[in-house]
Design brief:
The chain contains nine helices and no strands. By secondary structure, the protein is mainly alpha-helical.
Length: about 200
């Protein structure tokens, strides 16, 4: 019976409506619901924070702080936004606070910027190399953007969020997000010019 309930929670975590219901269970103190929520959000928040902070220990700390805040404040969620917007806003604010507390800028390293190739390309070393090269080029270019532009860009392209959702997360007007995206795209186009061409 418990196993089936855990599966039910996992299914709820796969849709926006289900996430809101899951949050209701969390607000009622259901640890099983929180575990399903944690499993669903840990990788998403880790990917998001990787491009913001470039620091594995800091990422883990922020993700855990964020999800602890979800556990403690689930009852305060009022449904005025999507659950994902609410959670990413908590993570964004905590990341900004953590980065402000650092005395030195966080730089990207070549090893940190590479995502492992996925899928069935294991027998295609040339494809893996090309994907790795492209990922590193994009990550290096993103790392040069100001934090606000980098955050808006990655929430749009890596997390499929609307400008309205991003504005809620970053607590600014939608037009500000549009401006940040305009400048981010312009800068990335210059930085990546000629680097992402198809190989012959």
């Amino acid at each position: 019976m418990v196993e089936r309930r855990a599966d039910d929670f996992t299914i709820l975590a796969k849709s926006a409506e289900g996430e809101a219901r899951l949050l209701g269970h969390i607000a009622a103190g259901d640890r099983g619901a929180f575990e399903a929520f944690y499993r669903a959000y840990f990788p998403r928040l880790t990917r998001f924070l990787h491009r913001m902070t470039r620091s594995a220990p800091l990422i883990e700390e922020i993700v855990n702080d964020t999800l602890l805040a979800v556990w403690r404040k689930a009852a305060t969620f009022d449904g005025s936004s999507k659950v994902s917007t609410w959670v990413f806003a908590i993570a964004y604010r905590r990341a900004c606070s953590s980065l402000r507390a650092l005395d030195e800028p966080v730089e990207a390293s070549a090893n940190d910027s590479a995502d492992e190739p996925e899928g069935d390309a294991g027998d295609r070393p040339d494809w893996q190399f090309e994907r790795l090269r492209m990922t590193q080029a994009v990550d290096a270019a993103l790392a040069t953007l100001p934090l606000a532009q980098r955050t808006a860009f990655q929430l749009t392209f890596y997390h499929d969020m609307t400008y309205t959702e991003i504005a809620d997360i970053m607590a600014c007007p939608v037009n500000t997000i549009k401006t940040r995206m305009f400048h981010a795209r312009k800068r990335l186009a210059v930085l990546l010019d000629g680097q992402l061409e198809d190989r012959p």
